[in-house]
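Lab meeting notes turned into a lecture example. A postdoc, R.K., suggested we walk through two folding results consecutively so the class can see how the record format repeats. The first protein's sequence and structure tokens come next.
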Amino acid sequence: MTFSTARLTTALAALRHFDGVDVDALPEREFALFQECVASVYRHAGVAAADAAAATHRRSARDRGANGWARRHGHANARGKVAEDLGIGEGEAQKLIDAGDAEKKEKYPLIAAAYAEGRIGAGAVAVLTETLDALAEVAALPEGLEGRFVAKAARLSLRDLRRACEQLRARLDREALAAKERRHREQRSLAISRDADGMTRLSARLDAASAAPIVAWLDAQLKDGFQRRKDDPVLAQADLRTAPQMRVDALVMLAQHALGCDAPGSGVRTEVIVRVDMRDLEDDLAQGSCDSLPGPISMGTLRLMAVDARILPVVMGGDSVPLDWGRARRLYTADQRKALMERDGGCAWCLAPPTWCIVHHSRYWRDGGRTDLADGVPLCTGCHVRLHTTEWELEMRDGRPWFIPPASIDPDRTPIQGGIARLDIDASGNRDQRDAA
């Protein structure tokens, strides 16, 4: 396999322009260029590392026995040798080996080209190839899907790419999602132990049905605790607990309540919201979602979650529930929040869970903004502050939010779609207007 440093050399040449420069003193535009150059070098160096890792893997093949490269250097496999050489974990080493694998490059040439050109990283290669391999085991891959995967990967963070691929796999292989949920249900566990210092440790692995009420309740207590600090400066000085400490205190409060009180509920009231399409209610393999958890959930599991719950039928936008208030009130109602979460899936910017979000007026209230769905955008606290304190702009298009970066970050100011729609991968090949900008 031919090895080339051409792209890495070009990237290094661009970075050399910053030799001897005080990067902290660079103007915004030049610092942005510096960051681009560093990222380009990092990615192309990763390509070289992947080629070397794959070569190490080939030289360490099992049929070479003790004469394999890794074994001769004291490692059981190539993954261990690559990890030692590069000072990384074995999981990251395996991603490099896979990214440089000649067979996978031949199998998925568009992904291989995007990686070689530095448009996506080794982590994205691993996610995409794993997803395509899994889908290929179920049915023939839709025409052009690999190219659409690459286009989406170039725009999404690795975290969001994983979510997008998870959603697509669930949609195209419904039986696999149901099987995974059954496996998770069987493997749920909670272990209690003590560490060397005498502190009690809780270690849990929870399926979706078990996790949803726990996560929703803890998030509500955490949100309430931080809101109280914000509203009360005296409390903010006295309550110095971290978020993990707040979760512990909330669990203790719940246990104490259950042991000695028969009143309904403890702590801040909350609810678990699941979202399903009415036509899917009788289809066990259909999918919905839960505001407290990322990822799709099968209808069978959603029914299990609802067994002990009081179900309230809600008609979105029906005559009995006003979803637009104009200037009649400033704060969005609970029904409006639910409708907006249905649209955006949580924070429209970073996709944080709905329980972390407030509703922001796309046109500020003081400037005549209206408390209508078309003007509401759910944002977590961090993204809300960022929107108010930076040069990023928010624009509504056809009732959906788009975020526009400042020219110092993107000279073209290319809009970025907000909300969970950003994760959609169109498996059918029909171009979605959401990708048009």
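The second example is placed directly after the first for contrast:
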Amino acid sequence: MQQLDMFPEDIRIERVDPETNMYRFYRLRLLPDLFGGVSLLREWGRIGTQGRHMIELFADAGQAADAMHAVYRSKQKRGYQLAA
């Protein structure tokens, strides 16, 4: 079973804490590129804004999915949860 079968290709997580005025989102998406590889698109910012983005290129879907999962785990440790 491939990593992609166990993990989605599009994840949106949020961290909301009204007491500290924190309303943040983080989105991770796997996208095929034109050269047979896979890109990991990372978008983040304050909820309601366009935010910022970064693209990481990987040779195959497995590497990209592993990187996506690592970022997701890291964000979970900081209090982010899946968006409703």
